[in-house]
Amino acid sequence: MKLKRMMFLLSFLTIFVGLFTLCTESVHAANSTVFRNGDKLKLTLDDGNGVNRVFKFDLPFTIKPDTPIRLYSNYIEIPSGDFTIDYANSTITIADSRPAPYSGSENHIELPITMKGSVQSVDESTVTPLEEEEPKVTQPEVETHIKEISTPSKPEVAQQLDEPKVIESQVTQPVVEPKVDQAVDESPEIPLTIPSGENFPGTFTINSSGTSFSVRLKIKNIQPTYTSYVMVKNADAQLIKRIQFDPETKFTYPLSNLNLSTGGYYFYIKMIDQSGNSAASVPQFVPINNNKAQQVEVFIDGKLQQYEQPATSISGSMLVPFRAVFEALGAKVKWDGATKTVTATKGNTTIKLTVGSRDAYINGKLVRLNAAPRLINGKVMVPIRFVSEALGAKVKWNIAAQSVVIFLAPPQVLTTSESEQLMEENEDASESQSNTTILKKISTTFSKSTDIVFVIDVTSSMTGTLDYVRQKVKGFVDSVPAGSQFAVVAFRDINLKADKDLEFLEFTTDKNKLKGNLNMLRPSAGGDLKESGLEAIQLAISKFPKNSNSKTIIFITDAPVHDKNTDLGKARFSVDEINEQLQKNGVIFNAIVPANGTANKQMKKLVDTNKGALYDIKDAKLNLAK
């Protein structure tokens, strides 16, 4: 009897283990993992990196060319018109018209299967099984490859996008081991879903004395990969300053630190993720008057007005030259010297004022003025608030800046990335001798013509540094000996395994062409991964002309590089190998990197043995608050 019980228990355990294996086993097909999701197969693809658009989907069976495949990125379906499928080569390519999946995004495809009896199987009209080795568990073959799961609920952000909504069960997603050949971003980025415009969750305020501004963001759980700025544009809507700040706390910054000249400026808050997505507040006009103790300034539609006879306050009213203000507001003006009457017409509105009289007329209707027009130093002066409001403009008195601010219509200032290339500054005027720029310091080390390669990271995190290089390179090229040549190698914040992902811009002696090459570089997506800059340095070394008398590399990055000795499979070179190549080719090596950390240690070795210098990247960021 005991023997029968033992046999029964043994049989039961055997069946239980077999069923447990059936329900839990999965198959890794190349770099992908296949799961069963209801009547569909779910196949995970490589995570996004902000650049890659082509994804391999290796399956343990072949599929017919007409098999319908649905593509998802972070559980948001990508419309079928935005990607193409190469069934023969098992690849999916996302169209250029759509942004590449951002760094750390989970990507997968789904394709249909059917149920046959009590056994899970693949529909033969859709899927043709491959010949495989006999599975170790005695179960139908497909069962050893497929595991029943339920897709996890979508992230909240998916509901804010114009994508199809899918009702899914709330079952926890099974843990999938990370691929050993791919670095894992410990803080994967969530798509930026912060609204722009009036609904932007943040405030920008100028203090009552007009000496500083404050920013406070009303956002919970701000992603560490987001970058927050206060952007400053001039009256022509050209970006002139960018101030980075910590979004977790209230940020206050003195206006005097911006060194703004008297004029009108637009301030707005902007947040950018590493995929280039952004959100911005409504630009706010801020008048700057550095002469407020001596002179009241007038701004019309953001532009500072220049009057031969300055604005004058009489009986609480600000008077300005009549012709200048009317014409600035778009009105046609007539002056009757005999009656000393001013007539201004704009559209269907006609205004009449008489010097010395407080009676004014708007379309024949009498209006009583607080102060009568006057003749001052030969100029007829009229009350600016009255004439502006009579012509439909909004008028405000800015007490902090001692300025009159007039807008005929709300200002239209773009906050797109395309509108935010920083204007060039006068380097000689903005840099004191005690604060010589890094590039100028490097230029003083050259005693003869030199071939120079800038090796630059161009990811989103490098925006301020890239702007610095663009603006300071003019002074640099003017300082180096005549006959020097300049080239650029740009690399991106991804795991590079071939030089095809590096961009080399040829040597030139033309300073304007060098600046044009730098302006071609656009900060792009990237995750918090180590850089593969050794490949970029090696490419720079290989591009020096054979007849170069002097060779220099200026390497600029904000992150460590992959070293094949420590990051096996992620780089083709080690720091020691690159060091040997630099010495063998007689290349002087300068590096602009963080003052501390792995990148500093790596580059210090190359700098010390190759007659260069190491600089702190914090000193190479343009218009950032410190």
Structural account:
With 626 residues, the protein is α+β, with helices and mostly antiparallel strands. Helix content is 17%, strand content 31%. The protein is built from 10 helices and 40 strands. The chain has a 6-stranded antiparallel beta sheet with strand order 1-2-3-10-6-7, with no helix packed on it. Strands 37-36-35-38-39-40 form a 6-stranded mixed beta sheet, with helices on both faces. Strands 16, 17, 19, 20 and 21 form a 5-stranded antiparallel beta sheet that branches. Helix 8 runs parallel beside helix 9. The chain starts with a helix and ends in a 10-residue tail after the last strand.
Distance between the termini: 84 Å
- The chain-level mean pLDDT equals 78
According to DSSP, the number of beta strands is 40
Radius of gyration: 33 Å
Low-confidence stretches are 16-32, 114-189, 427-434, 494-499
Characterize the main sheet. 6 strands, antiparallel
Structural class computed from helices and strand pairing: alpha+beta
Strand order of the largest sheet: 1-2-3-10-6-7
Helix coverage percent of residues? 10-25%
Shape designation: globular
Strand content: 25-35%
Number of helices: 10
